[in-house]
Amino acid sequence: MHQILKKVVAVDWQNFNRGCQNILQGTALPRWENVIQQVNDDGVDVLEQLIFTAGRVPENDSAEALATVTSQSRNLSAALQRQTAARVFICPAKRTPSGDFKQSDDQRLMIKTLSSCLRLKPDFLTLFASDGDYAPMVWELREWGIRTEVVGRNVAGELREAAYHVVDLEQLLEKIAEEAA
Fold first, then answer.
1. At residue 92, does pLDDT exceed 80?
2. Which of 44, 124, 178, 180 is 20 to 30 A removed from 140 (C-alpha atoms)?
3. DSSP class per residue in 30-46
4. Exposure b/e, 91-118, CB count within 10 A at least 16 = b
5. What is the model's pLDDT at position 105?
6. What is the pTM of this model?
7. What are the beta bridge partners of residue 94?
8. What pLDDT score was predicted for residue 101?
9. pLDDT attached to residue 45
10. C-alpha dist (Å) from residue 117 to 8, 44, 79, 132, 168
11. pLDDT over 80 (residue 42)
12. Rg from Cα positions in the chain
């Protein structure tokens, strides 16, 4: 009898979107269902999909600028939820005294993904990310018996080492394009 694997999917949206745009160079992003289908066999039950994206920082402190970026974040969240059936988390970004901004999406992705995996106890986490900062989370999940498959472009060595399996984003997109042709 064929055993069904349980998975949680977590996505660093900025990383995924930027990677797709660099690879596709003007071509439209593939449908999310095609991306998910490429990383899941028929015998996979996706328990939860989590997408994390950074909120935008207004260009100034005016009410209009704040309203604009708030509206853009809400629209992005709604669109991603409709297209992916995922839970979308808009992570706040804060302006620093130097005028730059600090995003909190990496930390929130790690905390929420770790808690979801420990609660749901999947066989695998599919993590769309490339940043080595995620390696400690992947090692911790491994301690709990949860394997991680990383999908990304230029995946950091620390994350590659911690992962059970790494899927190159460019090869994944090429395969989707071939099947669509």
1. no
2. 44
3. PPHHHHHHHH--TTEEE
4. bebeeeeeeeeebebbebbbebbbebbe
5. 72
6. 0.89
7. 102
8. 67
9. 93
10. 7, 16, 25, 19, 23
11. no
12. 17
Cα–Cα–Cα angle for 81, 85, 91, nearest 5°?
Answer: 45
**Rounded distance, CA 127 to CA 158, Å?**
14
Share above pLDDT 70 across residues of the chain, in percent, rounded to a whole number: 94
Residue pair 172/16 in contact (Cβ under 8 Å)? The answer is: no
CA distance 46 to 9: 7
Q: Which domains are present in the chain?
A: 5-180 (3.40.50.1010)
Amino acid at 132: G
Q: Please state, in angstroms and rounded to a whole number, the distance separating the CA atoms of residues 20 and 170.
A: 8
The residue behind tokens 């949680």 is 8
Q: Which two tokens stand for residue 126?
A: 């599919």
